[in-house]
Design goal:
The chain has about 90 residues and is an alpha+beta fold. It contains one helix and three strands; from the N terminus they run E-E-E-H. A hairpin with a 3-residue loop joins strand 1 and strand 2. This is DUF1876 domain-containing protein.
């Protein structure tokens, strides 16, 4: 079986930070023009060193995890709508 790439997705991550918190916003634009958005956050304990990159990694990972779950839910809802029945849950 030969695989061909027919589409590509672009995921954007943006961060907002202060001394204690990092907030990430994730966005994917799908080929049909729809968008799926998600958010994630991280908090630095006052005794931890200030490492913005680590906060971005944690907040970004949490946003991407939520984005993945939203995409699974979207796909599940589309399967149900197309089939007219309730499909089996999609597991990660």
């Amino acid at each position: 079986m030969t695989m061909h790439t027919t589409v590509g997705w672009h995921v954007e991550l943006e961060f907002q930070e202060d001394d204690q918190h990092t907030r990430a916003a994730a966005l994917v634009r799908l080929p049909d023009g729809s968008e799926v958005r998600a958010h994630g956050g991280a908090s630095r304990h006052q005794t931890d060193a200030n490492q913005p990159r680590v906060g971005e990694e944690i907040a970004g990972a949490r946003a991407l995890n939520e984005l993945a779950m939203r995409l699974l839910t979207k796909a599940h809802d589309e399967i149900d709508a197309a089939s007219g029945r309730t499909s089996h849950p999609i597991h990660v």
